[in-house]
Amino acid sequence: MKSEHEGSVESGSGPELLDGLVSLDKDSQLQRGLKSRHIQFLALGGAIGTGLFVGSGGILALVGPLPLWLGYLSQMFVVWCVMNAIAEMTTYLPMRGITLPYFTNRYVDSSLAFAAGWNYWYAYAILVAAEASAGAILLDYWDTPVHAAVWITIILVVCLALNIIAVEVFGEAEFWFASIKLITILGLIITGIVIMAGGAPNREAIGFGTWNDPGAIKPYVATGSWGNFLAYWTAFVRAGFSFITSPELIGLAAGETVAPRRNIPKAARRFLYRLAIFYGVSSLILGCLVRSDHPRLLSPESNANASPWVIGIQEAGIGGLNHVINAAILTSAWSAGNAFLYSGSRILYSLAATGQAPHIFTRTTRRGVPYAAVLGTWSLGLLAYLNVSENGATVFTWFMNISTISGFIAWIVVLITYLRFRSALKFQGLLDTLPFKTIGQPYLSWFVLVLISLLTLTNGFQVFAIKAADGGFDYKNFLAAYITIPAFLLLYVGHKIVYRTPLAKALADIDVVTGKKEMDEWCEGDVKPVPKNWLQRIWFWIA
């Protein structure tokens, strides 16, 4: 493994390699087959999974509708800030083959990049297994005689095929996966508004009645104002599972995106608006459609019966929509699993290219698809088969919890990397060369960095406040909440001890120049498409 990469360019018989990873030779780079609509829907496909449909019901049952809504709004703000940081870095150097750990290695420290890279890969790979397992459960909702292992196999094989064939095929499939899902969600939001207004068969205008009875907030752990705050904080933490790794998906695709300096900022700006619709509005409606004390929200079965959408529509007397909703949730699980496999494979490819993973994972097809890294990431997704047994389902839940904290840690590293990147630009007098700038920087990134750190450290606070049923310490939930932190630190400290790297690179030594000239020259050739009629104008705005 290599301990440091100081912006060096390796040459020889093969193409030039920047930092041993990024090729500046056009014939050896990963193909650019992703368009603006592909990367926008890629990020949304990863953000909108089973968490929106089923996980939201668990939060509603635990703390009530108001904390549910505020928790999602708060996480949207965090995601927006992380997305802005990623967009600024990737539009500055949108080189083919880049990943976020590459930027961490270049702007901060190789040890932090090493730990972050493996943390990312593990989170993505486990999420592939999580979404495949959820898909099998959702298919079983129709009570088919097919064994769950068969459904898991079908889901995993299709995701593998879409990621191996070619980048264009993957992007197009993800676009249509996400399109079907988003159209369905919009339909459900409209249905929810109609129910609230009294347009359902039962003719009952429920409005915000559930906020009065049983109440807007269910105090958590404590009573009074403190209990209300802890209810909000718990919802804030748990809403994170729906968003982890989603902002990174745009950054990871930057190296394979057509016209990145035009399309990455475009995708970043619109990402927040679309999240506001799909999470902000839907979480508000859910808290109105379903009582927080509804017994079916507490069902241990992880299928559409636990979805607040199903409960709310059935309570309103609308029949038949339960199958439509279940199909939409299934599509979201498949779409998210597809996106996570894509991202995890690119992380593993980057680790191998920099000597931090076996070199075999750098192998690509003739068309530039890193098939070895795809297969390596996909193989860990086979853990989905643990969900076939009852004990496997318990282990599966642990993986979900661990992935959430891995996502928080990843965001912390992203913000540290961005702050060092921006400081180096300022120190070297190059801050004005940023092609894309976002509001409130760097102060907003500092604030969110502290906020995410608090979320990570307090995500399992309830184990200290609530004793287990037998009066003892709830060590299982404690491990699920915190085991990822020492695992990450072990990778980081172990790498530092072995390679004796400094705490961080000096600002004067941070390379923010190499590759910039090539990207400037390449991006100058981008010609913004001009719509010829109003239909094209609408399509260019959407896509």
Automatic annotation (TrEMBL):
It is found in: Membrane. Keywords: Membrane, Transmembrane, Transmembrane helix. The keyword Transmembrane applies. Its main location: membrane. Residues 38-506 form the Amino acid permease/ SLC12A domain. The keyword Chaperone does not apply. It is a multi-pass membrane protein. The chain crosses the membrane at residues 41-63, 69-87, 121-142, 148-170, 182-200, 271-290, 368-386, 398-421, 442-466, 478-495. InterPro entries: AA-permease/SLC12A_dom, APC_YAT. PANTHER family: AMINO ACID PERMEASE (PTHR43341), PROLINE-SPECIFIC PERMEASE (PTHR43341:SF36). This is Amino acid permease/ SLC12A domain-containing protein. It comes from Podospora bellae-mahoneyi. The lineage of its organism: Eukaryota, Fungi, Dikarya, Ascomycota, Pezizomycotina.
